Amino acid sequence: MSEHLTVVDHPLVQHKLTKMRDKNAPTNEFRQLLKEISHLLAYEATRDLPTTTTRIDTPVCEMEAPVLAGKKLALVSILRAGNGLLDGILDLIPSARVGFVGLYRDEETLQPVKYYFKVPTTLEDRVTIAVDPMLATGNSSVAAIDMLKEAGAKNIIFMCLLASPEGVALMKEKHPDVRIVTAALDDKLNDKGYIVPGLGDAGDRMFGTK
Ligand code: URA
DSSP 3-state assignment of 56? Predict the structure, then answer.
C-alpha cells in the first residue's frame, strides 16, 4: 500500500474511540479501549508485511503455508504515551523487538530534545512501527523518525490514535516515505497544541496523572 495516510474507519474502532474521547471515561476504561483499538490499528498497519511460505504437516496432509518473512518487527514507543499503544501491538506480535524514544520540548527553542534512545539492532532489516497516540504538531514524531532513520530504519510505519491535519502535513513534508495509520483525522490544533476535538492529554488520561 503506497498511500501516506490510512484512517481506519472501521465501526468498532470508531465506537471505541468515541468512548475514549468522552471526558468522563475513567482511566481503566480509557486504557482498556486504547489496548483494544491498538489491536485493530496494528491489524491494518501490518496488512502489507512480507510473507513467505514454510512446509508443514497438517493432520490431513503436507502444505506450503504462509508465514511472516524476514527479521522480527521493531516496535518503537515514543514515550510516554506510546506505551499505551505498544502493549496492544505486543499482544498481536509478541515476538517483535521493542525500542523506546524519549523526547522533551525545550521551553526556549520549542524543539524536541532527546533524553532516551534505545532501539533494536539491525533496524535496516526490520519493518519498524513507531507508536505515539497523538500526531499533533508533528514536531516530536518527526524528530523521533529522524532518529530512527539515523539508526538505520528504512521501512517505517507511524501508528497513532488521532492525527491533526498539521501533523500529517509535517510528516508528509519531512518523511513522505513513512505511512501513517490512525483511527481518526481530527479538525485542527488549538493554540496550546491540543488536537480538536481530540481527547485531551493522552498520557494523563491513560496513566491517570491528572
Ligand atoms: N498530545 C496529547 O496528549 N494530546 C493532544 O491533543 C496533543 C498532543
Answer: strand
Q: Which of these is catalytic: 105, 106, 122, 146?
A: 105
pLDDT of residue 105: 79
Q: What is the pLDDT of residue 1?
A: 45
Q: Provide the 8-state DSSP code for 107.
A: T
Mean pLDDT of the chain: 95
Give me the catalytic one of 55, 57, 109, 191: 109
Return the residue matching grid coordinates 518527526.
142
Q: Three cell numbers at 76?
A: 518503537
Best mutation site among 140, 201, 205 for ligand 1, i.e. most ligand atoms within 8 A of its Cβ?
201
Ramachandran angles phi, psi of 191, nearest 5°:
-75, -5
Summarize the confidence of residues 128-144 as an average pLDDT: 96
Do 116 and 99 meet the contact criterion of CB atoms below 8 Å apart?
no
With a cut of 90, say whether residue 107 has pLDDT above it. no
